[in-house]
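Weekly modeling sync, notes
Attendees: S.R. (lead), two postdocs, one rotation student

Agenda item 3: backlog of single-chain predictions. S.R. asked that every request posted to the team notebook include the full sequence so nobody has to chase files. The rotation student volunteered to paste the first one in as an example of the format we agreed on. Action items at the bottom.

Example entry:
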Amino acid sequence: MTAAWLPPAMMIASGSIHAIVNAILKGGKDKMAGRAMIDGSSAVLLLPATLLVPLPDGAWIWLTISAAIHCVYLYAVVRAFESSDFSAAYPIMRGTAPLITAALAIGLTGEDASVRELAGIALLGGAVCVLVMGRHIGRAGLGWALLTAAMIGCYTVTDAQGVRAVPQPASYIVWSFMFSGVAIVTMFGLLSRGRLLAGARAQWKPGLIAGALSIVTYGLALSALAMGPTAPLAALRETGMITALAISVLFLRERVTWQRGASVAGILAGAALILTR
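Predicted structure, as returned to the notebook:
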């Protein structure tokens, strides 16, 4: 029997690592090449594991849908980061996503959520969005960030259904990276019109590191979703914004503003509501 604390702990850890992956992506010069390198290296690293896990029978359709959604999601991420500051676009993506995920999980798949959990999801999402206050983001950047959030909600609900449809979650996790890796590299390869290889070669080291971290962050998330409800667990992943804030303050020497303090307090309060039994 799974300990009650394990899925939330896995999601919180996943969120922290996810923030690092996106910071690496934002730091690269060629965002398309960087994202293709991340997802391509994840697939290559997990390729031997396809021989060790069973085929994901019962989840092929979910894997196909998920790969398509991830293509739209990552294209939107790249466009958002190209047109906006990380500190403006990322909080919108991650703060809006829990609300969309909750609506989809409850409205489409019929999952239950208590009033307390819904309040925690709303508080956590709103607290993340507070980070955007005082930061400029244009219409294009806002649009791409909101599309990203919508796709996060869609792939989270899709993958939650898929990982629960297979006998072993590891099977879905491994094949998810295979499907998405091939689809994303192909998409960005076509969009870049042949420039992808040169861009990937120039930033292969951070891309490889981020690819390995992507396996850890989304592997933890899918494993957690296999064991618990979608909406509250997905919201807990956004506690990774605290890690992002810590990096910006401790390593980038950015100021601690009242918005950041309020956001951290709100994220912690929202997480407490979700975790309280």
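Discussion: group reviewed the output briefly. The chain has a mean pLDDT of 88.
Action items: rotation student to repeat for the remaining queue; S.R. to check formatting next week.
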